Amino acid sequence: MILLSILTPVEDVLTWALEWFHTSLGLTWAWAVIALTIVVRMLLVPLTVRQIHSMQRMQEHLPEMKAIQKRYKNDRRKQNEELMKFYRENQINPASSCLPILPQIPIFFALYFVLRDFDEEIYPQYPASTLSWLGFVPDITANITDHWSGYVLLAVYVASQVASTWYMPMATTSQAQRYIFLALPFVFAIFIINPPVGAEFPVGLLLYWMTTNLWTVGQGIVTRRLREQIKPVPTKRSSRTPPKSAQPAPAVAPEGAEPKGQKPPPRRVKRKKKRAKR
Hints:
10 helices; elongated; single chain; 0% strand; mainly alpha
């Protein structure tokens, strides 16, 4: 298969990393998968920082973007052109939310192929090792539905995926799209329980995805707290920023009319001087 040939270098790196964690650090294979996940997420920190900064800039300029969309709501092409110019002027990358996800896709599939043949290609070289995790999961290379612990990990995965989606910054995502993202883990869970023929999901793969979701949750909590501590900087107006609506000039009262809300000054009454009697 073409996919297998493309992912072969990634599989070799993942296999080497798992063996190094197991032999050099003395970790079990399950903890080696967790350590591998943490290393992958640490390597993706620069992309995550770029994602957070871009999403923050997008959040700051969200009112201006909505104004542009409203101004060109009847001309979709012009609206997209103006938004792209606005993104370039304000250094906003709308695709930045996908930056940390894209590198994880080949790693996910490569780890799937590594764990699928793990008990035949790698495990026989280490006969004294164990494939269990905390005495809770008997075999990380087994199918999720082979043991009740797999269903427990699947529930933890769904909860962690929902939480990671909730804490993920989505400045331009509508409420309906956010609900779709929150529902996807449940759809994926049904697919895992009833996979197609020949496509079984090992527990170790779920352990990897669960760990990366928990990392995303912790990252989202830290990002929100830092955002609350930092005061937002006033945004600069650009050439694409719509002009502010002119405020109506104060009404000028006609001559002789008394301004509203003000009491007229009291009138002074001149008293006539009494003439002295002769």
